[in-house]
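[Automated response] Your request has been received and processed.

Submitted sequence:
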Amino acid sequence: MDNREQRILTVTCYGHFLSHFNVLVFPALVLPLASRMHLDMSTVLGISFWMYLLFGITSLPWGMLADRLGPRFLLFLFYIGSAVSAMAAARYVNSPSALTISLAALGLFSGIYHPIALGMISREIRQVSLAMGYNGMFGNVGLASAPLLTGLINWIWGPAGAYLLLGGMHVIGAAMTALLTITLLSETTEEATETSENGNLSAFLILLVAMMLGGIAYRGATVVMPAYFELKNQGVTHFFSMMIGRELPGNLVATFTTSLIFFIGILGQYAGGRIGNRFEPRYSYLVFHAITVPAAFLMGLFHDVPLLILVFIYTFFLIGMQPIENTLVALFAPKRLHHSAFGTKFVVTFGVGSFSVKMVEFVEKNIGIEATFPVLGGVSVFLVGVILYLIHHTSKNPEQPAQ
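Generated structure:
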């Protein structure tokens, strides 16, 4: 890559790290906020609903706006808008209503990232696959590090400190975007119009249903994990406290565990990319999701080390399927609509998937937190059924041209 491409990759990879970091600060703070606000856990979980909803449903409008304004300004807006929103969350961390609004704004600005940055990479960097690989790794580092750093900062300075740190990291991103000289070829040259048509539009619509259900399972799992581990892994917390000779906060151990699990997810993505490249992606997609089902059901029955083993399996395959899923999007979506197709994917996975926050809130309040993962396992049962229908639908010719 030349210097221009490296600068583009620098600002977009840092942004991918932060876009996922943005929405995983809150789950690590659920129990500390519940104690601070004197609210039950289900009510605190509901504070994040609008953040997750706007993070998803705004992807397509932001992408359409980029076609008019260009990606450079919107990438800067992602950083500066998220910085202001995070600092507002720090200021109003004791007010449920004001915190809800601040987090909703954070979700709104976070929704800018994926359609803008992925579009920049695909249009501006010659080695697209290599660049997307680096970009994906930074996103997963954001997933993995957010719970750990948030738990550590909360232990030292409280929830407000965690959001102040997030705001400061976005200020750095805004400065990088403003100060680095980046020439965008898409702004200086006229791109050729893509006239070829391929894919399978009906199969893509079926895949959208599968991705929506996968988004519900993913968001439900990520939003509840830190609190779930704090309540169900007390034996692990006690063990580590004995090891170091002092009592550790349960929240710190839970957030560290959550970070470790997301690092397992990075390995899953590497495996998913290799398997999806070597084997038929439809069947690989089916196997990865099918393995999550028994793991999710069993997670409701165990605690401590057996629970962690099951969560490692669940996360490895739930996150590991993403490269395979993206391969299927590229396979089934009409070529001239690939950017819109990926924008639509983020709407259904992050937008519709945000309703899992309400589902988890209902389950925790009416059944108990131990039922959340079995319920998510039930969602995955439906998901596996949709994938089986997708395989049946495309069995004659998976690359049939879209009509």
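Summary generated for your ticket: The domain at 1-191 is CATH 1.20.1250.20 (Growth Hormone; Chain: A;). Residues 190-196 have pLDDT under 50 and may be disordered.
If you did not submit this request, please reply to this message.
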